[in-house]
Amino acid sequence: TNGQNSYLGGVTTFVIPSVVDSTGRATTWNLSRTSSSGSATVYFVVMDVNGSYPTNPRVDNVATGTIGNNDSMNFAPHKYVGFTGDYVIRNNNRQYYNGNNVRVTGSGDIYSYYKRNQWKINFISEGNHVTQREVKTSEPIYYEANISAYGQGNDGNWYYEPTNGKDGYYFAGWYADAAGNDPFDFNTQMPNSDITVYAKWD
């Protein structure tokens, strides 16, 4: 169906080729119309890791077809893993996503913008070696942002070091599991989900 139209009951449906994102997973985007006039090229724009949209957006995928001036289009708000539909612009007219449907007015090319998801790191210090449970949550972090700053710096200091250990125990770092068997490596990127790490006390 790449670049081809299928006709069902008088409604033209454009099936856009799959796009493989940075994680290697492909997602699809479908567009339908009910009118019979107008044409456009559809561009997909994804937010940078710093939280801004590129001034000169890279075209990830282009779809062409006959698209009416006031059509209701079925966009996929989760076209890209780690991103959510933000808004669509056509002829300087901005329409925000409301579920899957966006009514596009005017004429000319269409730009569909996708914002980068944000997640948090939960630092939990609990168990038999602490005086009371202690939890700290980071500020929102963009998907794919480098999170090494939330680990241990070159000066030996941690971004967050719990203070609830019982006398005789010392903080031995953050672990991916509550049992303290798997040290968490902060030299990575933020996934498309929250992260929870657990304090180990020795």
Explain what this protein looks like in three dimensions.
The chain has 202 residues and is mostly beta strands. Helix content is 0%, strand content 41%. It has no helices and 16 strands. It has a five-stranded mixed beta sheet, with no helix packed on it. It has a four-stranded mixed beta sheet with strand order 13-12-16-15, with no helix packed on it. The chain starts with a strand and ends with a strand. The N terminus is likely disordered.
Descriptive keywords:
single chain; 202 residues; mainly beta; 5-stranded mixed β-sheet; 4-stranded mixed β-sheet; 16 strands; 0% helix; disordered N terminus
Question: Which helices and strands appear, and what pairs or packs with what?
Answer:
Elements: E1 5-8, E2 11-20, E3 26-33, E4 40-46, E5 62-65, E6 72-74, E7 83-90, E8 93-96, E9 101-103, E10 110-116, E11 118-119, E12 121-125, E13 134-137, E14 141-142, E15 171-175, E16 195-201
Parallel strand pairs: 4-10, 12-16
Antiparallel strand pairs: 1-2, 2-3, 4-5, 6-9, 7-8, 7-10, 11-14, 12-13, 15-16
Radius of gyration (Å): 23 Å
Total of helices: 0
N-to-C order of helices and strands: EEEEEEEEEEEEEEEE
The percentage of residues in β strands lies in: 35-45%
The largest sheet, given as strand count, sense and whether it forms a barrel, is: 5 strands, mixed
The amount of helix comes to under 10%
Outline the low-pLDDT stretches: 1-37, 61-66
Strands in their spatial order, largest beta sheet: 5-4-10-7-8
Structural class by sheet pairing and helices: mainly beta
Number of strand segments:
16
The chain-level mean pLDDT equals 76
Straight-line distance between termini: 60 Å
Overall shape: it is: elongated
